[in-house]
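FORM 7B: Structural annotation worksheet

SECTION A. Query
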Amino acid sequence: MMHTLTKPQFDILSSLLFPAGEQVQDPAAKLELEQLGYLSCEKVTPAGRSAMEPYRVQRAVFLAAGFGGRLAPIT
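SECTION B. Predicted structure
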């Protein structure tokens, strides 16, 4: 059965998987993730990666408008 992540749990896993931002410090959430088997020694386990999979972006829409006049030499 898949566990639904809380916001603090998600923030910790995403900050460890994608370290572009600051590290999230929430000892209670880290302990919960370790008990679930999603974290081990401050590293995301394969189970943790699987828990993040439902949150992966599948599709994106880019909204744009205008004629591209500033890009005239390129367009």
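SECTION C. Observations
The longest strand covers residues 39-40. The mean pLDDT is 85.

SECTION D. Sign-off
Analyst initials: ____
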